[in-house]
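Hi everyone,

Forwarding the result from last night's run.
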Amino acid sequence: MSLVAVLLGVLLVVALIVCVLLAYRLSQLRRMGTPVLLRQIPAADDEGWRHGTVHYSDDALRYFRLTSLRPGPTRTLVRQAIEITDRRRPFGSEADILEGMIVLELAAGADDHGGAYEVAMAPGAVTAFQSWLESRQNERSQRRRSA
């Protein structure tokens, strides 16, 4: 066999593996998470939105971007640091991709990078997100450890 045929065969196998991994990730994320669109702000009015899913845990919100092969979350927002600063309906050209969704603006400092975000969710998902936030334990109510 020629070197070109071997290289093409290797490239084909690698492309197939990447496609299988991407399909597996998409199926897993769509089955297990809450679908959202997320973007870091500041951003242009209709740019920067990324499709993904969020998974809630006791201490963090983990965002998994749908088009990423990364095994872990793309962004992790700390539950105690998340603060909703604004709530709005999509406007302008955003309305085409965010139809029927509610956009929440999250204050800077919820992640390791100190970024501010906007997250677009369906109305039911917004209710679940707010309930998850409101049920977090207040820092002052935590028991003090005796030394």
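The chain has one domain: 33-138.

Cheers,
N.
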